[in-house]
Automatic annotation (TrEMBL):
ABC transporter domain sequence ranges: 2-227
Keywords for this protein: ATP-binding, Hydrolase, Nucleotide-binding, Transport
Species the sequence originates in: Streptomonospora litoralis
UniProt-recorded name of the protein: Putative ABC transporter ATP-binding protein YxlF
Annotated region described as Disordered, given as residue ranges: 305-344
Gene this protein is translated from: yxlF1
């Protein structure tokens, strides 16, 4: 298990990780999601003892990394795919790592096979593509057969086959009962692989919840209504119930519009009519995880290069809409429920 407890890391004036508290449990794939610069790599480095927290704790199996006697056998990590010496062969690189960590050399052939590099094991790493280096990095992480695996953007540089392979691998590792924590800045990728989601924005925790809850909370339809008579409409909306008898969620958008979850546009129109509120705009949008993610993390716009983070924004106008969307959506609270259940 991995744990961050009030974990904070400052570099000068920059707070890269800001009071993060979460746990990563065995037997499931936990995705670590956040835009560029949100603090994911820093969190990994703190967990792996490569950097010291300014305050708080980063724990692997309940201990700080420095206190672990045989770390390679406890936690494997892929952080930087270019870490291998370019002049060495893949096999020589892994043999050196194995020797340094007291791991028996036959394990090298085994992990080379797992990652599909057996045939090029004798070739110099300098000639490897980024995808091959990613595979080699994953092989290095698996060398000690550790119970915990930490992968920073493992799909980076991989072609479609490679991406599918990584998905299968992380699933198998979790099914074997291991703790698997991997980062991505793509919600679409997370949706396909992760059982549990930890989302950070600007170094702070935004979501810590089962993936199914996140999908459930965020895939719901939202109705936007713009009226000059907000005061007349807000009351009736707040008093309304969904078809299931739940309270309707009403929230103010950035432009003064009301964002309603739990009612159809027709129902909102009827309520407005009954309340004597003039309606200027009324439309329904299908919720998308990608948009929700952008909305949730958008309070860190200085980290988002124009266009760069939006490349898989998927749904119609998701990124644009998010860029103009209101501040933090209270529905996020509904999914911020740390799952403390132990799986083994
Ligand atoms: N060694 C460092 N010195 C100064 N600032 C740093 C250092 N490492 C990270 N930062 C800053 O901390 C913040 C978080 O960076 P970090 O690399 O952890 O984010 P990230 O979520 O991993 O982003 P990416 O997806 O781009 O890798 C950024 O503002 C970054 O510039």
């Amino acid at each position: 298990m991995l744990a961050a407890r009030h974990l904070t890391k400052r570099y000068g004036d920059t707070t890269a990780v800001d009071d993060l508290t979460f746990e990563v449990h065995p037997g499931r794939v936990t995705g670590f999601l956040g835009p560029n610069g949100a603090g994911k790599s820093t969190t990994f480095r703190l967990l792996l003892g490569l950097d010291r927290p300014s305050s708080g704790e980063a724990l692997v199996g309940g201990r700080r990394y420095a206190e672990i006697a045989r770390p390679a056998q406890e936690v494997g990590a892929l952080l930087d795919a270019s870490a291998a010496h370019p002049g060495r062969s893949a096999r020589a690189h892994l043999l050196a790592l194995a020797r340094g960590s007291g791991i028996a050399s036959p394990r090298v052939a085994r992990v080379l096979e797992t990652v599909g590099l057996s045939e090029v094991a004798g070739k110099r790493v300098g000639g490897f593509s980024l995808g091959m280096r990613q595979r080699l990095g994953i092989a290095a992480a698996l060398l000690g057969d550790p119970a915990t695996l930490v992968f920073d953007e493992p799909g980076n540089g991989l072609d479609l086959d490679g991406v599918l392979w990584v998905r299968r691998l992380v699933r198998e590792l979790a099914d074997e009962g291991r703790t698997v924590f991997f980062s991505s800045h793509l919600m679409s990728e997370m949706q396909l692989v992760a059982d549990h989601l930890v989302v950070v924005g600007r170094g702070r925790l935004v979501i810590d919840a089962p993936m199914a809850d996140v999908i459930d909370a965020w895939s719901r339809t939202r109705v936007t209504v713009r009226t000059p008579d907000t005061a007349l409409l807000a009351g009736p909306l707040h008093r309304s119930r969904t078809a299931a008898g739940e309270p309707v969620e009403v929230q103010a958008g950035a432009g003064g519009e009301l964002l309603v979850r739990g009612l159809e546009p027709e129902q909102v129109g009827e309520l407005a009519h009954a309340a004597g509120a003039r309606v200027h705009t009324l439309y329904r949008e299908q919720g998308s995880l990608e948009r929700a993610y952008l909305e949730l993390t958008e309070n860190a716009p200085q980290y988002r290069a124009e266009g760069a983070d939006h490349r898989d924004s998927g749904g119609a106008g998701g990124a644009d809409r998010a860029a103009h969307a209101g501040a933090h959506d209270p529905a996020a609270t509904a999914v911020r429920q740390p799952d403390r259940q132990e799986h083994r």
